[in-house]
Design goal:
- Helices cover 33% and strands 21% of the residues.
- With 180 residues, the chain is of the alpha/beta class.
- Helix 2 runs parallel beside helix 3.
- The radius of gyration is 27 Å and the shape is globular.
C-alpha cells in the first residue's frame, strides 16, 4: 500500500510540475512622451503702424534673451517659428544657445497629426502669435480651451505634454523686467 501511495505521489507531483505555466509578458509597452513649449513672439516695434512684419523692439529683444535663459535647462530637439521677423527674432537666442536651426511653419496649413508624429518623444519650442499660439495648443490637446492672448501679453508659456497620446497642458506667465 505504501508503494501505491508513493507511486500516486510521484505521478501527482510530475503531473503538477508539468502543467503549463502562465505566460508572463515582461515586455512593457514603451512610454512615449512629447513636450511642446509654445510662446507668442516678444514685444514688437510698433513705431510704423503700416509695417506688417515689424522686428522686435528693445524690450522684445530682452524678452527673447529671457526665453533663451528660461529654456536653457530644457534640451530641445526642434524649434519652430512662423516666418515673420518678430517670431524668428524671438526664437533666435534659443536657437543659438541650443545650436538648433529654426524650422518655419504656416499655422493655417499645419497638419497637427503629422506634426505630433514628426515630434514624437521630442522637446519642441513653437513660436507663434497672439491668436495662433493658443489655437496650436488647442489642436495639440484636441480641445477648445484657450483663446487669443491679449495684445499686451508677451510672457505666456504653454507647456503641452503628451504621454502615450494623453495630453496635459500648463499655462505660465513670465514677467520680463527688460529695459524699454
Amino acid at each position: 500500500m505504501k508503494a501505491i501511495k508513493y507511486i500516486l505521489f510521484i505521478l501527482l507531483s510530475v503531473n503538477l510540475s508539468c502543467k503549463d505555466e502562465p505566460v508572463v509578458d515582461n515586455s512593457q509597452e514603451e512610454t512615449s512622451i512629447s513636450t511642446f513649449y509654445l510662446i507668442r513672439h516678444a514685444e514688437k516695434d510698433r513705431t510704423n503702424l503700416d509695417d506688417a512684419d515689424p522686428e522686435l523692439n528693445q524690450k522684445g529683444l530682452g524678452r527673447a534673451m529671457h526665453w533663451a535663459e528660461i529654456l536653457a535647462d530644457t534640451e530641445l530637439d526642434a524649434i519652430y517659428s512662423t516666418d515673420y521677423n518678430r517670431t524668428s527674432m524671438t526664437a533666435a537666442p534659443t536657437s543659438v544657445k541650443q545650436n538648433i536651426d529654426v524650422q518655419y511653419y504656416d499655422p493655417s496649413t499645419i497638419d497637427i497629426a503629422q506634426f505630433k508624429a514628426d515630434n514624437l518623444n521630442k522637446n519642441v519650442l513653437v513660436v507663434g502669435h497672439s491668436n495662433t499660439t493658443p489655437e496650436f495648443v488647442n489642436m495639440l490637446i484636441d480641445e477648445q480651451k484657450f483663446y487669443s492672448i491679449d495684445d499686451s501679453e508677451n510672457g505666456t508659456l504653454f507647456i503641452v505634454k503628451i504621454i502615450n497620446g494623453i495630453p496635459t497642458v500648463d499655462k505660465l506667465i513670465f514677467n520680463c523686467n527688460c529695459p524699454e
